[in-house]
Amino acid sequence: MDAFTDFGSSERAMEKERKERQEAARKKRAKERAAAERARAETLRLDEVNARRRAEEAVAREHEAAAMIEENRKTGGIRFCEVLRPTATSSNGDRITLPVSALETLTNLGAIDAGPMAFELCAMRGDTVVASTHAGVAEFVAGEGTVGIPPKTALSLTRENGPASISGMMIRVKYVRLGNHFKSFVRLQPRGHGFHKNGEEVVNIDIKTVLERELIGHTCITTGDWLHIRHEKVSYDLKVRSLGSYSTLGDAKQLESEEAIFLVNTDLEVDIMPSETAEAEAERAVEAAKAAEAEQERQVQRALDRIKRAEALHSALPSEPHDERAAAAPAAQAGGGGG
């Protein structure tokens, strides 16, 4: 009896041990499968990361190549860019003065032989560009590390802050190539009340003649520039709102938008917008008309809503009671008449 008991116990122990080994093997396989899944997931994640990085690098290379093409278009491949301290000059026009060292650099780069030079000027506060314009160069007589800025150019770089505020800035001077166009276009907007006296009487002014006189000595004009002109001892400020150049396609002329234009040997077409004050008044009139129209629509909608509510209340009222005696009387009368 004891032998059979021992045999049964041993068999159960072996079965238990077998099941435990099976369970351990199952857990091991499950763990290995989970580890393999994690490895595959991590591989996929890394592949996605690498693919995204390669795509971003490809886009960055494309942007860099496009920026290089645009830079070559703007500069003609001549790399001249310096950050200089501004000093005031009294010359008329937009032409700046640069140090002798700039002349040497530009000569070595071939800029002198490329024709009349133009420069992009950016007023900087730290690394921030506050304003920009374009100018020609008058002379190479400025002190080293400085750039001479005439009043008209300073106005375009400081605008409402006034030319005196340029002393707290640095000027980034960059050589650029502006296209020569047989005909160019500028749209100007008078500041404030514009060509009015005391905001009322219109001043009769030949703007093209005045601009031709005022732009003597200017090499370039830039979108966003402020132009200061005088007429009959009165000063006016104009904003350059847009610029364009005409290109000839067969017999047709097409106007193309420009950031800046070269004023040398170009026929300049001028368009004058309403003044800032007139434009603001027109915008207020449009807004007032829109508000009045919206209010009228609201009033109409409120009236329609009142009609709908009245109709809903009327339909909710109980029907009038049926008066049997009133209905019977005509019937009785009809019967009596027949007898």
From TrEMBL:
Domain of life, per lineage: Eukaryota
Family: Belongs to the UFD1 family.
Region entry Disordered, spans: 1-40, 312-339
Keywords: Ubl conjugation pathway
Protein name, entry field: Uncharacterized protein
Pfam family, one: UFD1_N2
Molecular function GO labels: polyubiquitin modification-dependent protein binding
Organism: Florenciella parvula
Listed InterPro entries: Ufd1-like, Ufd1-like_Nn, UFD1_N1, UFD1_N2
One GO CC term, this protein: VCP-NPL4-UFD1 AAA ATPase complex
Biased composition (Basic and acidic residues): 12-25
